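Example record

One chain of 225 residues, shown exactly as stored in the release files.
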Amino acid sequence: MKKILLEIRASEGGEDSKLLVGEMKNIYIKTAKINNLDWLTVEERDGFVSLWIIGTTAKEIFKNEHGSHRWQRVPPTERKGRVHTSTITVAILEENVYKEVEIRPDEIRIETTRGSGAGGQHKNVTDSCVIITHLATGVKVVRDGRNQHKNKEDALEEIKKRVNNFYRTGHLEDFAEERREQIGDGTRGDKRRTYRVKDGMVTDHITNKSASLKDILRGKIELLS
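Predicted structure tokens for this chain:
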């Protein structure tokens, strides 16, 4: 079964760019559904989403999505009705042959400190908070419950998940150059596609094709291929 990783990042446009990351994610999930592809959210944080798209036709369907996507619209947060131009970037990485890593004790640093916030006197005067750092990647997990032993167990389990996600989702140097080539510098002038919301049209500047915004929002990205 073929599998590709889509990375969607906020670029220019502040909060609206971050909102567009979520909207682009929804478009791609709809695309996966109407093409009978499976999908999985790997990582999602403010201004960033990564998705596995799984299926034999995944690469072909999403082949033209990489690059800078420029949106011209009145953002939901705009009170004066002004049109803003915001950009997001999309990178497509093919599945890396990956074997889950086991984390050795000498690869992590474990620290304890006093708990903070709510939890009573016991939590605030004992070293119940556990901080674990994976030295090679810098991935850090903090657990701040009342029970230090439970905090350590939870933190060890979480650090393994996060470190494996770090490697699995293409943060290795093997993918760095490929990602840079695909997304360019992410500025408004470095565009793959323009979404003109007022006109209800989307134009792909590489394939020279256009489609209605309504169709693209339904996940019919193949119209721009």
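Notes: The mean pLDDT is 84.
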